[in-house]
């Protein structure tokens, strides 16, 4: 299919048996079902030291930034740690900026061992808005991950379908027309040292 949108999914979990990785794989299945191509960016495979503004190109930062920048849209996936998103994902986002996210569609997915990981998605939504990304209103949460995902598969077909729908929605809205510039967007200059 010509002009297939390419979606990258960034996995903010470093665990070998990660429910976040399983969920992102299912979301990428939804991307393919909707006519796009998908790629999992597994942060275990990137050398990303803690972000230091004096060394913005440390480790594999250049490669990560390139792959995010070249994507038509992004899905961010994270486990919920202490009510927020993971530190590996925070580090990856710190290396990225407007060049990677401005006017780009972003889908959010969060996984929790307990109840709904809403605050993790709220925090990611704020970060993405600060980068002038367009965050989908549709989001996917995987609560009680210890029972929702077993042996690398979803145990709940309805939940698996909700996660796949996120991938389809990202494809559907990846070419949305950007919002016109506003006073607020002109004032948002990002981190300045």
What would you say this structure looks like, in words?
The chain is an alpha/beta fold and 193 residues long. It is built from eight helices and seven strands, in the order E-H-E-H-E-H-H-E-H-E-H-E-E-H-H. Strands 2-1-3-4-5 form a five-stranded parallel beta sheet, sandwiched between helices. A two-stranded antiparallel sheet has the order 6-7. The protein is globular. This is NAD(P)H-dependent FMN reductase. Belongs to the SsuE family. Isf subfamily. Its cofactor is [4Fe-4S] cluster.
Counting DSSP E segments of at least 2 residues, the number of strands comes to 7
- Going by CATH, what is the homologous superfamily? Flavodoxin domain
H/E order of the elements? Answer: EHEHEHHEHEHEEHH
Overall mean pLDDT: 91
Number of individual domains:
1
Query: Number of helical runs?
Result: 8
Task: Give the strand content.
Answer: 15-25%
How does the helix and strand content classify structurally? alpha/beta
User: Which residue ranges are poorly predicted, with pLDDT under 50 across at least 5 consecutive positions?
Assistant: none
Gap between N and C termini: 45 Å
GO molecular function, one term: FMN binding
Cofactor: [4Fe-4S] cluster
Protein name: NAD(P)H-dependent FMN reductase
Domain NADPH-dependent FMN reductase-like: 6-146
List the helices and strands and how they pair.
Elements: E1 6-11, H1 19-33, E2 37-42, H2 61-70, E3 73-79, H3 87-95, H4 98-101, E4 105-111, H5 118-130, E5 134-142, H6 145-148, E6 149-150, E7 153-154, H7 157-173, H8 183-187
Parallel strand pairs: 1-2, 1-3, 3-4, 4-5
Antiparallel strand pairs: 6-7
Family: Belongs to the SsuE family. Isf subfamily.
Protein name: NAD(P)H-dependent FMN reductase
Organism: Haladaptatus litoreus
């Amino acid at each position: 299919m010509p002009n297939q949108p390419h979606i990258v999914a960034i996995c903010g979990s470093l665990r070998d048996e990660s429910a976040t990785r399983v969920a992102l794989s299912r979301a990428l299945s939804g991307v393919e079902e909707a006519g796009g191509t998908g790629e999992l960016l597994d942060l275990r495979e990137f050398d990303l030291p803690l972000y230091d503004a004096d060394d913005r190109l440390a480790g594999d930062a250049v490669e990560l930034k390139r792959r995010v920048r070249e994507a038509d849209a992004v899905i961010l996936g994270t486990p919920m740690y202490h009510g927020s998103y993971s530190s590996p994902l925070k580090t990856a986002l710190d290396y990225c900026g407007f060049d990677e996210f401005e006017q780009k569609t972003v889908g959010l997915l969060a996984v929790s061992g307990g109840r709904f990981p809403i605050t993790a998605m709220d925090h990611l939504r704020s970060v993405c808005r600060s980068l002038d990304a367009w965050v989908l209103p549709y989001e996917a949460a995987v609560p009680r991950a210890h029972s929702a995902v077993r042996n690398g598969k979803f145990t709940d077909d309805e939940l698996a379908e909700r996660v796949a729908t996120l991938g389809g929605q990202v494809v559907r809205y990846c070419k949305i027309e950007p919002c016109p510039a506003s006073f607020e967007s002109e004032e948002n200059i990002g981190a300045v040292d």
